[in-house]
Structures are given as C-alpha cells and as structure tokens.
Write a structure and sequence with these properties.
The complex is a heterodimer of chains A (about 110) and B (about 120). With about 110 residues, chain A is mostly beta strands. Helices cover about 0% and strands about 55% of the residues of chain A. Chain B has no helices and 12 strands. The chains are: A mainly beta (about 110), B mainly beta (about 120).
Chain lengths: ~110, ~120
C-alpha cells in the first residue's frame, strides 16, 4: 500500500497565480479530507468528501478555493488567484468509514510570494 | 459545537521518564472517537492511538496509553519511558461516530525530550 500520495511536495508561486494541489487516496478508502496547517491557526479542515461527494465545505476560506473529486482515486484543491496568506502546509487524508484509521499524506508546502 | 483543547503549548521531559499530554474535549454527542497523532519535524502526521467513547478500557499501544476520563471529558496521552525520538508535536483529535465524519484537531503540544 503506497499510502496517501500528494503532489507536489513543495510549491512556490507568485501572488495571483493559480495553484492546484493533488491527492491520491488509499485504494478502497471512501472518505477524503483536505486540511490546512499554519502556525497561527493549527490544523483546519477545509472540505471533505464521502464516496466522491462533497459533504462539508464550510472550512473553505473563500471562493478562491475550490475542491473536486472526480473519481475515487483522485482529488484536487485549487486556489485561484493565490495570495500570500494562503501560504501553509496542505494535507490530504483518507479513511475507511468502517474503520478508525485516518491516513495522512506527506503534505504540500505552499509558499505564495 | 465540538471542540478539542490542548492547554500545554510545550512540555519538557528527560529520557526514560513518563510524560502526560493533556487533552479535553467538548461534545454533546454520546458517540465519538478520540485520536492522538504525532508530527515530527519532518512534517508527516503519524497515528498513535484511538479511544472510542464506549470503550470500557483505556487504549494502549506499546509505550502509548490513553487516560480516558469520560465524565471529565479528558483524553490524556501518556508516553512511558520517553525516547529522544519522541520529540515532536502531538495533536489530539475527535470525530463524531457518524459515517465518514472529519477529525477536529486541537492546537497541539510540542514535546521535547532531552538526554
């Protein structure tokens, strides 16, 4: 099992540019979560999906953020346009609703300059 | 609303000693799960231990144990025989026991183990 795979590991972009973060959950897991981690705010839930359907996006900070899960093996988090305050580590996690484990990816460190 | 509180920003312990990291939670739901994760300086999130609200016994996983006091709504992590490699950030998290519900995290506690 390769675990949850996130790409890229690091992203540096200029303010105003579009950024797309990618996530491949563990095969068979039916829930997927996007979190953002900053020093000031800690780990915040942005959005999560069950069976590819968005369940709760109340944590998405602004309309500049959007997330999709077109199939069970892929999800994207897009920021357009990006701003310096979006700089953070973005984690993707997946879980099997029948079990207790939540597995996190290695995260994407985003820097917007 | 559900909430997780970790009141210790930083903790210091010497090798081989035991340490307790505090966590309190708030929920009106009778069914929930409590988790602890470790985040070393490399950044990955490592699952340590899980406790269900209806579990009769405190969870244990190797050197980790969870001191679950339901009436006080606390779920403290106890690490026995600390090792240098235990130095990391530790997060307490809660999930309501509904299908596919997300984890809500506390702010974390930084543990430093010295020799």
């Amino acid at each position: 099992d390769a675990g949850v795979i996130q790409s890229p590991r690091h992203e540096v972009t200029e303010m105003g540019q579009e950024v797309t973060l990618r996530c491949k959950p563990i095969s068979g897991h039916n829930s997927l979560f996007w979190y953002r981690q900053t020093m000031m705010r800690g780990l915040e839930l942005l959005i999560y999906f069950n069976n590819n359907v968005p369940i709760d996006d109340s944590g998405m900070p602004e309309d500049r953020f959007s997330a999709k899960m077109p199939n069970a093996s892929f999800s994207t988090l897009k920021i357009q346009p990006s701003e310096p305050r979006d700089s953070a580590v973005y984690f993707c996690a997946s879980s099997d609703v029948d079990k207790h484990g939540y597995t996190f990816g290695s995260g994407t460190r985003l820097t917007v300059v | 609303a559900q909430k997780i509180t970790q009141t210790q920003p930083g903790m210091f312990v010497q090798e081989k000693e035991a340490v307790t990291l505090d966590c309190t939670y708030d929920t009106s739901d009778p069914s929930y799960g409590l988790f602890w994760y470790k985040q070393p300086s490399s950044g990955e999130m490592i699952f340590l231990i899980y406790q269900g609200s209806y579990d009769q016994q405190n969870a244990t996983e190797g050197r980790y144990s969870l001191n679950f006091q339901k009436a006080r709504k606390s779920a403290n992590l106890v690490i026995s025989a600390s090792q240098l490699g235990d130095s990391a950030m530790y997060f307490c998290a809660m999930r309501l026991n509904q299908a596919g519900t997300a984890l809500i995290f506390g702010k974390g506690t930084t543990l430093s183990v010295s020799s």
